[in-house]
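Suppose a classmate hands you a notebook page containing two proteins, each written out with its sequence and a corresponding row of structure tokens. How would you begin to make sense of it? This section walks through that situation. The first entry is reproduced here exactly as it would appear on such a page.
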Amino acid sequence: MTDTKRVLLAAPRGYCAGVDRAVVAVEKALEHYGAPVYVRKEIVHNKHVVATLSERGAVFVDETDQVPEGARVVFSAHGVSPAVKASAAERNLDTIDATCPLVTKVHKEAVRFARDDFDILLIGHEGHEEVEGTAGEAPDHVQVVNSPDAVDDVVVRDPEKVVWISQTTLSVDETMETVRRLRKKFPTLQDPPSDDICYATQNRQVAVKKLAPDCDLVIVVGSANSSNSVRLVEVALEAGARTSYRIDRAAEIDEAWFDGVRTVGVTSGASVPEILVDDVLRYLADRGYDTVEEVRTATEDLMFSLPRELRTDLKAAGTAPQQGGRRSLSVDPI
């Protein structure tokens, strides 16, 4: 082990295309329509992002019935069920659907498999907003499988007509173990047409796997309700890091973590702005960890267009985003 204190900085890290699209959607809505703009649930699972948008006039609510009739509401990146959309319509709400297009893809899979009368095994965490939204597309056909150990309790109508789909932000390894056990129980289990775990989740896990064996400590920046951030801690430990902790911000770092630590890994979940990582790097530099080496395993350039409802209004007003840069969201949602 090197005698020099150093930081191994994971890349990719932080914002994915779906998160960027959702956050920018709320920012643009506030600029264009003015405050307040209501948002159902947290637009993304990050305390800093939610607090910052709240200061600018976003009002976060749990359900659409908390939004004044006829007002404007943004659906979060995690997606919503048809029942939520129907509730919004009943209240004459103007909706902006900021669901990540990769989540929308899973919703469409659920609809299609239900139409073909499959039992749909949704691998994901019960109660997570994304899982609730996906399951709500076909509640009579979907059952949630929380973990590999939950497979024993799965009961289906016809073992010959079973398919699995998944939450987009899971541990790749744990999901594949769940699928392995499901296939052992249901040998004709069908796969989704393409991988449901999103590219950003996979890329961040791969980067952590690469740096973790060389780290005494891995710090993951991300909120407690961010599934992909929590998974990164698990991945770091499984890949060989001596210790790993999740924090929302640098102020939560504990000095006691650094006893005997020479190499610190740093990464962040897909809903974390880079400013929070920069704060952690400054904290570490002040304590002698001023050598930073980037560990890159992929380069991401995927971008999504803004939600159609917002894009139409911005275009009509002549204020549609220009092309170029991180704020150029140039790919239409699926």
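The notebook's second entry, a different protein, reads as follows.
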Amino acid sequence: MEVVGNTCFSSSSVLVSPLTNGAFSLSSRAIYEKRSCNFTVFSRGIKSNKISCKSSESGIQENPKSKSGSGTKVEEYNTAMKRMMRNPYEYHHDLGMNYTLILDNLIVGSQPQKAEDIDHLKDEANVAYILNLQQDGDIEYWGVDLKSIIERCQRRQIRHMRRPARDFDPDSLRSGLPKAVSSVEWAVSEGKGRVYIHCTAGLGRAPAVGIAYMFWFCGMDVITLKCMALKQLNTAYNTLTLKRPCGPNRKAIRGATYDLAKNDPWKEPLENLPEHAFEDIADWERKLIQDRVRSLRGT
């Protein structure tokens, strides 16, 4: 059995299981290869698909069109993501759910597509909480049966939470981050298992919530996957995106940080401040942010 990294795909042809060091192993039915930020899935030894996370000088590189049954939807989604988020990465719905272990108690990934994905998260990744950032329209667009997923969560004793944010909209993300992080912080504090944060592709909203949580509440020792003191957004951002190549909106995270740390109603708007304002926070600002986020529990 080969250890190949910490990003895994769950589908009928790709089986994965977590190891104690945060990596994942694959069964003999599938081989997963990660080289130079290219993810290639092999099913029973036959190359089947590719996810490219290369970017051109302009920050965007087109991939060949998908030939799967949901190809048109995938193409439309990736086109919108590249245009509106300037995100050079792509979502491949036909490969099934994929996710990455970020902290020892935090996972960021794409949407569960069927009830069996919940069994996988429970049995293979020790997930006890799921935070869904999708709006109803996102779920309907991909034809996901959310009711069956929630029912399977209840059966498997997984707490399913929703904090919807509009896809490709940094203002919606900015306003929604505090409540989303409050759900993550509460779930982590409960300590009953890992927290799985997902949006549609796990490339925008979900990693932004993970980064904001790390920035506001902890950090990450990249060797042990344990929390440590952290005061810089850049450290949290790079830590997550090096593990899971993606392009969450940094400005939205800065904006939410500013909103929570603002202690003067007459304070100058963030837009008038230097470009890197609130990418570093003082201890008193961190304490104020934490208190305000915790006060949002249950809202």
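A careful reader of the second entry would note: Residues 170-190 form the longest helix (21 residues).
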